Amino acid sequence: MVTITAPAGAPTSRARARRPSAGVRRRRAELWSLGATVVVWTTCLYVVALWVAGGGVQALFTSRADLLNSAGRLTGLVASNLLLLQVLLMARVPLFERGFGRDGMTRMHRLVGFWSFALLLTHIVLQTLGYAASAGLNPLVQLWQFVVDYPGMLLAAAGTALVTLVALTSMKRARRRLRYESWHLLHLYGYLGAGLALPHQLWTGSDFTASAAATWYWWGLWILTAVAVIAYRVIVPLVRSRRHLLRVASVTRDGADGVTVRMRGEGITRLGAQPGQFFVWRFMDGPGWTRGHPFSLSAAPTGDELTISARLVGDGTSRLAALRPGTRVHVEGPYGGFTGERRRGRRMLMIGAGAGVAPLVSLLEGESYAPGEAVILTRDTTAEVALRTDALAGLVRDRGVRHIALPGRRARSGAVWLPESHSRWNGADALRHLAPDVLEHEVYVCGPPDWADAVLRDLRAAGFPPERIHREAFAI
Fold first, then answer.
1. Inter-residue contact 143 to 121 (CB < 8 Å)
2. How do residues 383-418 score in pLDDT, each as one tens digit?
């Protein structure tokens, strides 16, 4: 039997070989990023302009009650806009997914969520104090009157309670105590909270009804958000899953506590999946299939196959090991910008920890480079738990990748992303030793958030250009 292998430096996927040039892909990525940024800032500035046009600035200098009410209106407008943007970020709209990427979406989600919640509470306090000052009432009495006498306020109170629940369970300390499945279920109440909190403003808020421009904007944004959620979280995944008919092809153990699942379907290339991206997966294997779990591709997608790898650390990942060939698979995606689209450098430096190695392997399989131009450093607590070791061995053998495995417990000082056996190393010096020509390397980092933060600090200290560093954080 004669085995024909791809030439050194060529991507393993035929679909990747036909992709546009690096310059074209980079320009496309920059346009997506620009478009997403423009949308966010334009909407925020527009609602501030509505407040100014409605006499908001003048009201600040008339009386104490007007000052409180005007400031309350402004915080309410911005909070409402950010709350709807937060829902759009949760809706997996392609503009934001491709514009910000997974890690950017995580940071944006956290930032927008914090400010929308803080401004929502500030809006409630300021409006209560302002109306109470105008009517000469106790603020608590005024708050009660808001809830029971004003149209839509009872719904708004319920919505605020749900948004508060989501905000509290999203705090780091609370997240650590929650299973992913429980956290995800609670987080979905954010949709309901936004849906209940906003209608009172559409019905009675002066800044929402004072002009045709304001009315059209708010009703349009509310409807657009609702349509986006239904379309991108329900309809599109259902259509794609039905069209491609993905089924589990094989399930194999990967390392001491990992698993690799390969799935085959029809017309997989039409999904447009790229190495490094992730899907939200639902396996139709019995009760609990409705809970989706995000897993990155651990191999470059081929014409009919998608592959994921995961550590068995929870309910969602543990059931992967029990999957049977033929199980139907429902997918949402592909998502994320942790791809070769933004690549500028000729050389590649990949740094991954634990399950974060999986998307790096898929990138190495799908990208073009000459032998010796790609380096991957992998970190695991022990060598036995490492994922995708066979695939990495193939990349070393067939593509000339340099693989450096550094198992062991994390160092407690110095370069804390390295193992204790290398605790005396300076992190920046270690990175320059791996990749001396820092200006020629494209760097991809994937792993737990605090570990990745430490890697990024040393990358910057080593002189790697920020625009050449791409990060994917594995976290809720």
1. no
2. 999 999 999 999 999 999 999 999 999 888 778 899
